[in-house]
Amino acid sequence: MKSIISGILTACLLLIALYAPAQSGFKTFEDTVGFYSFTYAGNFEIKKLSPASVLITSPLSSEKDKYQETLTINLGLAPQHITVDSIASLLLTSMQRTYLIATDIKTEKISIRGYEGRKISMTVMDKQLVSVSESFALIKGVFMRLSYKNEFQLNNSVIVSFGELIESIKIK
Hints:
By secondary structure, this protein is an alpha+beta fold.
């Protein structure tokens, strides 16, 4: 009798495990260029800006939350013989011109799906106090850029992270 109950419980747990991912609300995005894909929560908004660019917007995390974080993924052909460091220098200069008041400027080495990249982040005044970052990598002759913008919340509301989404990016 115990083995029958144990078998039924095992079968039920297996069915729950198989059924849970379908119910979790996660979806897969495939870019129209056919270069990459990623997994995202079903309550995120996805807007195609062009064949090589997509805007991802997080949901509001509470009734007090008045700002949705945004992540933009852009693809572009990389000029021959360009280096990650030269792109970082150009991008840092561009960001400093865009945001005249910038503090906490950081440039760090990162990896995007195993490819060398850089992340430039800073705090800026853009109507409100905002954290911005540009992460990028040269991948198979393509420049992949991840642009992130997040307003600082005074009410300490929970901030939704794009970390899992970025970790789920698959390069084809």
